[in-house]
Amino acid sequence: MLKRIIHRRSLLKAAAALPFFAALRAQEKPDSPAPPALVDLDRGPGAGWSILVFPDTQNYAKYAKNQAHFDRMTRWVREHRKAWNIQLALHEGDLVEQNDIKVGGGRGYGDQNSESQWTSARRALLPLADELPVIHTTGNHDYGERAAETRATQFNDYFPSNYNPGAASLRVDSPLAACGKPTLENAAYDFKAPDGRRLLILSLEWGPRKSVVDWASALVRRPAYKDHTGLLLVHDYLMPSNLRDGQDGNRKRPGNPHTYGTGKQGDTHDGEDLWQRLVKGAPQMELVLNGHEMAAHVGYRADKSEAGRTVHQMLFNAQGFGGGSDHRGNGGDGWMRLLTFEPDGRTVSVRTFSPLRQDRGDPHYWDDPRWRFSVRLTA
User: Do 62 and 98 touch, CB atoms closer than 8 A?
Assistant: First the structure.
């Protein structure tokens, strides 16, 4: 019986991975690098440099008992910054479950009001301010009352433009946010990596407005950035089906920015909108990172841009794991992602891990091709 159970689970796991493998086979280049080794998490890979990616963290913020888990995750980053040569951290949005409520949400929506949620997110991330730059995008739950009913947000009250000196030193431009001022909701960063690679990082607000996309489209065409490696950080873009949100023409799907109060009048962009209006025409764009989506929580696709570069588009989220929104859950099981830029100057190794699971003595790497793989950038 045990063998049958294991065999059935293996078949189910393989079946779940089929859409991912199909997309990967259809698009991968012949010289696609092998998946990275699962090195000792405490010692690191011993070479290269890394970007740390936080997925949606709202389920840590909304329950009092889970807030310490996000503190643990950021503490791991501080403790292992040198081992992994972590140079940047990126947060994919949804710092909180509700942007502006006075009492806890209840019914699976948490037991903390918005003040507590925002305070806990800031408490977890502020210690990194003296360690490394942290770059943010904002999610739908960071706006309105509960989920982007409007573009009102408390994000800027808790994460003002100068809260992280390292990120502030890299920021080269910001357009006006909906509040009428430049904020971290939309920003461009120029980062010089230890290996000499120059990254142009664009972080855009939830369901970016037309004025924001126009700004970004103009910025990526500035001569100063033509030889950079472009990275777009945005909350909604790729789905677990490996299609961009809206690519199938369905803009009424729950979760699509066009279905929220911030987008029902049309001034918003989903993943396919961003591909058509920004990404595919950006001469340096090679990486797109997003969260937001659940189900499998991960996705990947690669497409050629108009400049002939391969654009690696990656969904990574974890909010539904470890019990998800349930009051008995732990908020997301502590999963984070490391993108390690290898010494060959082209390979990026993607590993997904959890310090919470490591603390419990459970397997702390997600050893699956959807969660552990490598991609190759332009030299």
Answer: yes
Helices then strands, counting H and E runs in the chain, come out as: 9, 13
Burial of 16 (0-12, 13-18, 19+ CB in 10 A): middle
Mean pLDDT lowest among 20-29, 174-183, 219-228 = 20-29
Measured between its terminal Cα atoms, the distance across the chain in Å is 51
Reply yes or no on whether the pLDDT at 2 is more than 60: no
Q: How confident is the model over 164-191, as a mean pLDDT?
A: 97
Token duo for residue 22: 């199909």
Q: How many domains does the chain have?
A: 1
Token pair in block for residue 286: 């090679």
C-alpha 289, offset from chain centre: 5
Whole-number pLDDT of residue 16: 44
Q: Note down the domain range covering 242.
A: 2-376
The whole-angstrom separation of Cα 95 and Cα 121 is: 6
Residue 39: burial class (beta carbons within 10 Å; 0-12, 13-18, 19+)? middle
Residue partners of 198: CB distance under 8 A and separation at least 6: 190, 191, 192, 227, 228, 229
Residue 327: HSE in the Cβ half-sphere, 13 Å Cα cutoff: 10
**Which CATH number does the domain housing residue 115 bear?**
3.60.21.10
Which helix (H) or strand (E) is 2 found in, with range?
helix 2-27
